[in-house]
Amino acid sequence: MTNTTLEVTHKTVDDTLVAGVRFIGPLDKIGDHFRKLVDRVKPQIAGPGFALYHSISFGGGGHDIEVCFPISEPVSEGDGVTCRTLPGGEMLCTIHRGSYRSEDKEKCIGTTWTRLFGYMAEREIGATEGPYREIYVENDVQHGDDTGKYVTEIQIPLMLPVWLDRLAAGLDRYAGESLRREVMAGSDVLSLDTSVPDRLAWIGGAMERLDAAVEDETARARIMFGCAHVFPQMTIDQVRAEYERIGNVPDLLRWMREDPGWQGAAFESDSDDPSVLYVEKITANPEAYEAATTDVEKRAARCHCPFVRDAIRKSEKISPTFCGCGAGWFVRFWEGVIRKPVHVEVVKSVLQGDDCCRFAIRSS
Question: What pLDDT, on the 0 to 100 scale, is given for residue 264?
Answer without folding.
Answer: 55
